[in-house]
Every structure is written in structure tokens, then in C-alpha cells.
């Protein structure tokens, strides 16, 4: 998914595309959204999660800690979507986001 060297806004757009792709491929999150486990506004909550992650990652000038992302994703799933995921997918998603963020940092 390499992030080529581009201007700030282009880089952020590429980061956002990567974050959204990872979240759309996350079965646990997609199941929570489709079944509206977070309420009738689950789709909006999905978009807010993607935006919040993109914003946080784009502001970080240092590599993010895997554990911090895992905690953030777990808390978001629990509080926003009323879902406790224990299948290991939170860790996998966090790892993918760390890689995307590292590519983002190196594309500067």
C-alpha cells in the first residue's frame, strides 16, 4: 500500500484511505456496523472512528505504540459498538495501522 512522497494533504488522504481500507476489512467491526450493535447510527460511528484514527495518526510524528492502538480499538468497540472482540483481530488491525503509520512517517 506504499505511500509515495507527496504534499501534506495528499499524504493525509492516502493515510485516510489506508485506515478506511483496514477498517472495512475488519470483519468484527463490519458485523457490528451491519447489525447496528452501536445503534442506528453505527455507520456514522464507523466513519467517525476512521476519521479519529486518521487525525490521530497524521498528528503523530513518532511511531505509535502497538499497545496504544490495541487499547484504543478495544475501547472503541466496547463503548461505541457494544462489542467485546476477543478473536485476536484487534491486534491484527492495530498491527496493520502501525505499518500504515510507519509508511506515512517515511513518506515525508
TrEMBL record:
Keywords: rRNA processing
A Pfam entry, by short name: WGG
Tree of life domain: Eukaryota
GO biological process: rRNA processing
Family: Belongs to the TSR2 family.
PANTHER family: PRE-RRNA-PROCESSING PROTEIN TSR2 HOMOLOG
Protein name, as recorded: Pre-rRNA-processing protein TSR2 homolog
Amino acid at each position: 500500500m506504499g505511500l509515495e512522497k507527496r504534499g501534506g494533504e495528499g499524504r493525509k488522504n492516502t493515510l485516510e484511505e489506508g485506515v478506511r481500507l483496514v477498517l472495512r476489512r475488519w470483519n468484527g467491526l463490519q458485523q457490528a456496523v451491519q447489525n447496528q450493535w452501536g445503534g442506528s447510527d453505527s455507520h456514522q460511528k464507523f466513519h467517525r472512528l476512521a476519521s479519529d484514527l486518521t487525525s490521530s495518526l497524521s498528528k503523530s510524528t513518532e511511531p505509535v505504540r502497538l499497545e496504544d492502538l490495541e487499547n484504543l480499538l478495544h475501547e472503541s468497540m466496547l463503548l461505541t459498538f457494544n462489542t467485546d472482540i476477543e478473536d485476536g483481530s484487534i491486534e491484527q488491525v492495530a498491527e496493520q495501522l502501525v505499518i500504515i503509520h510507519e509508511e506515512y512517517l517515511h513518506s515525508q
